[in-house]
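Researcher: Go.
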Amino acid sequence: MSQFDVAIIGSGPGGYVAAIRCAQLGMKTAIIEKYSTLGGTCLNVGCIPSKALLDSSHHYEDAVKHFEEHGIEIPGEVKINLEKMIGRKQAVVDQTTKGIAYLMDKNKIEVFQGLGSFKDANNISIKGSDGKSKSIEAKNIIIATGSKPSSLPFINIDKERIITSTEALKLKEIPKHMIIIGGGVIGLELGQVYKRLGAEVTVVEFMDRIIPGMDGALSKELMKVMKKQKVKFNLSHKVKSVERKGNEVIVKADDKKGEEVTFIGDYCLVSVGRRPYTDGLNAEAAGVKLDDKGRVAVNEHLQTNISNIYAIGDVVKGAMLAHKAEEEGTMVAEIIAGQKPHIDYNLIPGVVYTWPEVAAVGKTEEELKEAGIDYKVGQFPMRALGRARASMDIDGFVKILADKKTDEVLGVHMIGARCADLITEAVTAMEFRASAEDIARMSHAHPTYAEAVKEAALAATDDRALHV
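Model: Structure:
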């Protein structure tokens, strides 16, 4: 039987990063993956393919709506080749997953393909796609099995007309009318893809706002922008039935007055979040406990109740984000090696990859009010930037929340072009406990979108923004 210092079950961003860090620290490392390609949800059916489609659809929309304004004239009609678009997406995925396989080989990490399940606290059985099983032994084990799309108990996901994000990434036709249940990150991103390509898109959301976990100002601004893009929103609607009749999907919901509303489309994307995935893990054989939400229960060191078994990423508490899983993978590897790493979960950014992009880190206004913290706000509109006007990306703003007494930055919330990249400036500043004035006094290149961060910091510092 093969013996290892560390075995990792799951090869998503958390799992493969943990494997690389363990190998770097001199441990004999194995990684087990149920599917034929490495990379987990993120690389195969999540972050990477959705961004590829967002990018392709954005190019199409620019060609149809904006090129002429830039003085670019295209003779004839601009056409979509959906098959080619989906093919490009798959090529990006294939290249990326092969890159992970290369990294495993480079770091001398042994890869096992098959379903990993516990025999006990040190032994894992791996059942391959050919039905044959083998076992490995490991001193330490990291559970990194990720998550799967959630549904509602009365919905039958048929993967044809009633679909999850997985199927939405490989449709063979552009929907005429896509109904999206859930106004969170995944639903809005994929909704925007198909809206750009010509579908009618209707979002049905249970809460009274979209992206409900983010700052209320971001929710309001994103909905305003997406309404301009002709996406329809139905907030405070409780879906009660989803039924397929031939090529039609009928969704019934109660609005905030309790009155029944019916939506009819040809596709329904169920996007109501994700659930931790532990199916087939056989955690009980190792004595590992799950919590009341089906997550693997861990302490602050991401250690389960069994001392040599750890868990990271979507399968444990916290935001289901690829970069959070990566940080946890690195942390656990270093803990096993006897180091003392640390993660500040307050400083893990969240991003929505619509256009404009939405990004945030730290506390929201709602959280500061609830905690009774005295704070001040500095906000700056993107449309006041020369770079934004030059690129015709004028929607959005940057908002900085700072402590009223100390001026320490407590939260940064932004919506606009390239905010997914801009948010890292805020994370860096907050890691070093920067004040709003610290950011305001830093030189920002002109003309850039990043100037909005400086201007918002100036606005938070005695209301002295320069360009409004």
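Model: Residues 2-149+275-343 form a domain with the FAD/NAD(P)-binding domain fold (CATH 3.50.50.60).
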